[in-house]
Amino acid sequence: MPLPPLLGLHHVTAMASDVQATYQLMTQVLGLRLIKQTVNQDQLDTYHFYFTDDVGTPGTDLTFFFFPHQKSAVRGTNLIAKISFRVPNDDALLQWADRLAASGIESSRVTQFGDAGLEFNDADAQVYQLISDRYETSPARSQPWTHSSVPLDMAIKGLGPITINVINADRLAFVLTDMLGCHLLATDGSKQLFALGIGGHSQQVILATKPEPLTQAGFGMVHHVAFITEDLTSLQQWTTALAKFNLPHSGIVNRFYFQSDYFRPGPQLLFEIATKGPGFFQDEPEDTAGQHLILPPFLTSQREQILANLPTFEEGDVK
Description:
5 helices; globular; dioxygenase; Glyas_Fos-R_dOase_dom; Extradiol_RC_dioxygenase
């Protein structure tokens, strides 16, 4: 029986050094909604913040861990090297260049497999790219944050292609095509463009061959990338398949807002397959989601201890 198709990018999780600065960049500059304040379920003294569109649509999530006492990453190879967001068209990129400059952020125009983009870094040297989605034919799935100061005609639509630097592209290409169901769309020198489904920007992965020293983990880099599967039944099928592929994997993990299975497709790289739901509004109202720290039910008894070990975050700054 064929595996259920992976539907695109679910979320990207990165590591950052400063919770307040990250909040300001994501919400006040990029116009994303902080839809969930919670903690890393595997390290309870670490915030886990989810930034999404207005309703937490899968494929719009950029999430962050803020590990205490973590060092800065030393970027090299075997690294998810670039996070990208889709914006409506080329004109939006011009508007974004002005908006970023007004916030003191330098950006540069780039072209990637024929698509115009705008690249910039945050204070941790994390690399971002805004990519023009003008040729995208699939219907828009996201709903821009209603309280964003970003005009609708330039608002971020969701995640775009992720770029992964690798020593050996052949191994990871095999995982993408023969295991995950991607197909090769294009090659440009040392870069290969793979896609799921119809191949829109929200379904794309770029492999870049980089014969460099391995990345040393730290803040300013991506922790993992997740792909969408429809529901728990389809995730269970993927869990069975990962075992047959002899890929070490976590087994199904209940993240409360979705369920997941994690696996390593290569050294230092972490992939996740995650269900669409149940979503972010089962434990707080939609209109006030993200304004306070929320813990999943299995952690609520530890709330006071968890709060005592978390760094300061000004909840009053949350809109």
